[in-house]
Specification:
The chain is of the alpha/beta class. 50% of the residues lie in helices and 19% in strands. The longest helix has 39 residues.
Length: 188
């Protein structure tokens, strides 16, 4: 009987030690993953804007007199050329994001009612790390489309460059990296 009890006790001790070992391994693994995540992030933990706006609110952002070059891309999750060029915009944004004279903004044209079901998941999946304004002003599109550019048909993608509230350039089509970088260099 004594030997059975000590056998059961040994199993309990063994299971306890195994549990502690597994718990330590899981904790160490989580700690090392967190450490590796923090080393791959940039030093500044910039919070990006995701906001539903009307055109007047968007204009207030774009018309700032702060001497920054604003690269503004109009796009939607349902627009294949828009989605195709987004990686280019993200790559170019990464090149210039620490330049205090530069700011890239994405203006989303999806239905604002889809912010949780479509837009946020798309942004997370594609790791978009720049300000996104969801333009919810379809009732006045015949006013704001020509306000962006007189020749704009309203088709997307479309890219506008502003500085100090003045439009410097407008392009109503998909852009490649070379075109976008050259356009920025022209004005930066």
């Amino acid at each position: 009987m004594q030997s059975e009890l000590s056998g059961v006790s040994k199993i309990k001790i063994y299971m306890k030690n195994l549990f502690v070992l597994l718990l330590s391994m899981v904790s160490f693994s989580a700690l090392s993953q967190e450490t590796s995540k923090s080393t791959t992030r940039p030093a500044s933990h910039h919070k990006y804007t995701l906001k539903v706006v009307n055109f007047d609110q968007l204009q207030a952002v774009l018309k700032k007199n702060d001497n920054k070059l604003y690269v503004v891309n109009f796009w939607a999750t349902w627009c294949k050329p828009c989605v195709a060029e987004l990686p280019v915009f993200m790559e170019v944004n990464n090149l210039y994001q620490f330049n205090p004279q530069f700011k890239m903004i994405l203006v989303n044209m999806d239905d604002a009612m889809e912010i949780d079901s479509r837009i946020k998941p798309f942004i997370a999946k594609n790791k978009i790390q720049m300000d996104v304004y969801i333009l919810d002003d379809n009732k006045r599109m015949n006013e704001w489309i020509p306000a962006v550019d007189q020749n704009w048909s309203g088709a997307i993608p479309a890219t506008v460059i502003y500085r100090n509230g003045k439009k410097l350039s407008f392009k109503e089509s998909e852009m490649n990296k070379k075109e976008l970088v050259q356009l920025i260099k022209n004005y930066l």
